[in-house]
Amino acid sequence: MVEDELKTWLSGYRRLVIIGVGNPLRGDDSLGLEIVKEIKGKVPRNVRVVYGGSAPENFIGKIKRFKPSHVLIIDAALFGKEPGEARLIPPEQIPDETISTHAMPLSLLTSLIQKETNAKVILLGVEPRNLGLGEKMSPEVRDAVKRYAGALVNAIGKCYVKRA
Questions:
Q1: Model confidence at 106, in pLDDT bands (50, 70, 90)?
Q2: C-beta of residue 126 within 8 angstroms of C-beta of residue 84
Q3: pLDDT class for 164, splitting at 50, 70, 90?
Q4: Nearest to residue 31, comparing CAs of 16, 52, 45, 10?
Q5: Is the pLDDT of residue 53 over 70?
Q6: In sequence order, what are the beta bridge partners of 53?
Q7: How far is the C-alpha of 48 from the C-alpha of 110, rounded, in Å?
Q8: Which CATH superfamily groups domain 2-157?
Q9: What is the largest CA-CA distance in the chain?
Q10: Which of the residues 68, 87, 115, 142 has the least number of beta carbons within 10 Å of its own beta carbon?
């Protein structure tokens, strides 16, 4: 299901930035970082993979210089599902007031990226189980990292059109 939604969202992309967001010291919050590690080297040249960490706003200049048509942000997101479940969340559905381990709320980050790039922006949110400091990634989220990394690489490959 998420793979089909990704394919729809990616259709017609020219240049894509994928930014993994999270804190590697907070268990499942590192899932965005782990997904970008998994896909690095497995995507076409018109895809830039960014390890955004807990301060992804530091990469807005780099993202802007790449001139993407699409920007996919990957992070843990609390939306009341089972740990490891994912959904694509448009910027207008990202709450302004979120309890976050990041320096800047994702709603503000998506707004800045849209303003600076005019790109289509979306969040791939994955429901976490463990967000505690020093916790390990939960088994459900570890499995989800592999599953969504594969789905993302597959969706990108299906939507990639080589330009003559």
A1: confident
A2: yes
A3: very low
A4: 52
A5: yes
A6: 21
A7: 17
A8: HybD-like (3.40.50.1450)
A9: 49
A10: 115
